[in-house]
Amino acid sequence: MPTVLVPLAQGCEELEAVTIIDLLRRASITVVTAGLDEQPVKASRGVMLIPDTTLDKVLTTSFDMIVLPGGLAGAENLNRDARIHHLLKQLFQQGQYVAAICAAPTVLANAGLLDHKKATCYPNSLKPQQYPTIQLIDAPVVIDDKVITSRGPGTAMDFALQLIEQLVGKTIREQVETGLVRPH
Q1: In the CATH hierarchy, which top-level class contains the domain 3-180?
Q2: SS3 63
Q3: Which InterPro entries does the record associate with it (predicted)?
Q4: Phi and psi angles of residue 42, each rounded to the nearest 5 degrees, phi first
Q5: Count of CA atoms in the C-beta half-sphere (13 A) of 162
Q6: What pLDDT does 33 receive?
Q7: What angle do CA 51, 52, 57 make, to 5 degrees?
Q8: What Cα–Cα distance (Å) separates residue 150 from each residue in 7, 69, 83, 147?
Q9: What residue ranges of the chain have pLDDT lower than 50?
Q10: φ, ψ dihedrals at 67, nearest 5°
Q11: Partner residues linked to 89 by β-bridges
C-alpha cells in the first residue's frame, strides 16, 4: 500500500487534517502524521492533535505522497519550514504526488511547484497578480499531473476521496465513499 505524509503544523485546519487522515486510512493507505516539532499541535479551532512522529524523524523516509492541510496559520507555519519545501521538491522531482488544501497551496506555489499548473485554493489565498504563472480554477479539487489542490474545509471529503482514487484506484475510492453514506 502507498505511504502518505501529512505534516501537522500549529494552526492547521483540523477538519481538513482529520478528514484526510481518516479517509486515507479507511482505504488502507499508510498515513504518517508528523509534527514540525515535539509538541502536540493546537489546530485552528483549538482541537489538540497528537502527531505520530516528528518531521525530523521521517526526513529520509520514502513517501508516495505528501498532503498539506490548510488553515491560514498552519499554512504559514508550513511555508516557513525549509524541511517542508525540501520534501515537497524532492517528492515532486521523484514523480510522486504533492497535494494541498485551503491556504496550503501557497506552500506549493512558494516552492515553485505550481508554476504553469492549474490549481485551486481557499478564496484569495493565491492572488493572480502575485502568482501570474498559476492558472487558478474555481473548482472543489484540481488535478494537474501529480499536483492536487482543493478549496477548503467544505471540499475536504472530495479532496481526500480524490487522493484515494489517485493512489489506489476508483474501486477502493468507491468502497470508501459507499461506507461514508454520502449523497450522490
Answers
A1: alpha beta
A2: coil
A3: Class_I_gatase-like, DJ-1, DJ-1/PfpI, Prot/Nucl_acid_deglycase
A4: -90, 110
A5: 21
A6: 98
A7: 105
A8: 17, 10, 23, 10
A9: none
A10: -125, 125
A11: none
Separation between Cα atoms, residue 2 and residue 57, nearest integer Å = 19
12 in active site: no
CA distances, 116 to each of 22, 32, 151 (Å): 32, 30, 19
Give the contacts of 89 (CB within 8 A, at least 6 positions apart). Answer: 111, 112, 113
Q: Which of 49, 102, 147, 167 is flagged as catalytic?
A: 102
How far are the Cα atoms of 44, 107, 124, 138, 184 from residue 74, in angstroms, in the given order?
8, 10, 16, 22, 32
Give me the pLDDT at residue 114, please: 98
Tell me the backbone φ, ψ of residue 112, rounded to 5 degrees.
Answer: 80, 10
> What is residue 121's three-state secondary structure?
coil
482505504: which residue's cell?
A: 27
Residues whose CB is less than 8 angstroms from the CB of residue 13 and which lie 6 or more positions away in sequence, other chains included: 43, 44, 69, 70, 71, 74, 101, 102, 152, 153
pTM of the model: 0.98
Question: Which triple of cell numbers denotes residue 60?
Answer: 529520509
Q: Coil, helix or strand for 126?
A: coil
